[in-house]
Amino acid sequence: MKFEILSKQSAIKHIVTQKELGYGCGFSLALHTGEDQETILSNRATIEEYFGKEKIYCSLKQVHSSKVYIFDEDKSVGWSTLEDAKEADAVITNKRGVVLSILTADCVPILLYDPIRQAIGAVHAGWRGSANGILNKTISMMQHRFGSDAKDILVAIAPSIGGCCYEVGEDVASHFGNCDKSVLREGDKDGKYFLDLKRFNELQALKAGVMPENIEVSSICTSCENRHFFSYRAEDGCSGRFMSAITLE
Question: Could you read off the pLDDT of 140-166 as tens digits, one per residue?
Fold first, then answer.
């Protein structure tokens, strides 16, 4: 699938993959979950066919942090092996021909593009990263590193588990205690809440200065749409991950 807001931009190319049962491992693209490595690499080769085999690829070692990695390499990192993957949960670059990617199965994947400064970013925002402001930190890093203005940045928030399904306990909810009910609402059980991380990150983008018309949020909940997207929650733990990726052509 693609975003309308990004598809209008001729200088970039992007994609959000889906679960495809006709491929090995359901077209999972994760090297770190214990599935057959050759199958995953074969699936990643399909991504290379889409973006171009001559491209440089970046896949992170995601650790639920708020660390932002600035990609300035001349070769692929974390793509064919985990050994050289960088430990971070967001990555930015202004280098052309570099594909930045994020892997998820309920957490919030976010793609960023600054058409003025010609810079891109990819963010993995789980509840820990979201609570620690990873999206704001990524936008701030784009401002500092590339001279981006937040009002110019396009923000595409991809499918993730929605507030309809993401039930959390007080330990997680306490990190979002000051949020309104569009982000956090009480559940039917004592000490249980429903958390909408897509809405939280949308509000964080607005707070950072991103214009409302420059934000597109997918309405897809990965738990509800588990036939088409991997969902760790709906599948009681799963090894599959789908990919959100973007490149400057």
Answer: 999 999 999 999 999 999 999 999 999
